[in-house]
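Researcher: Re-running this chain for the archive, since the previous output was lost when a drive failed. Same request as before.
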Amino acid sequence: MEKQYLIAEILLERGLPDLVVKEITKLGEHELFFLKNKWNNSEEFSTDFQI
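Model: Regenerated structure tokens:
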């Protein structure tokens, strides 16, 4: 299951549509939503702390 999350994160980072990510990783709607929120939140924090 952890591989699916890692693959999904990589695909989302590369800009693939949600439908494609769900089909490749077989993740559910809630899991994909969780990953996207986690990824977007961490991206916001990383830009806030850049010097």
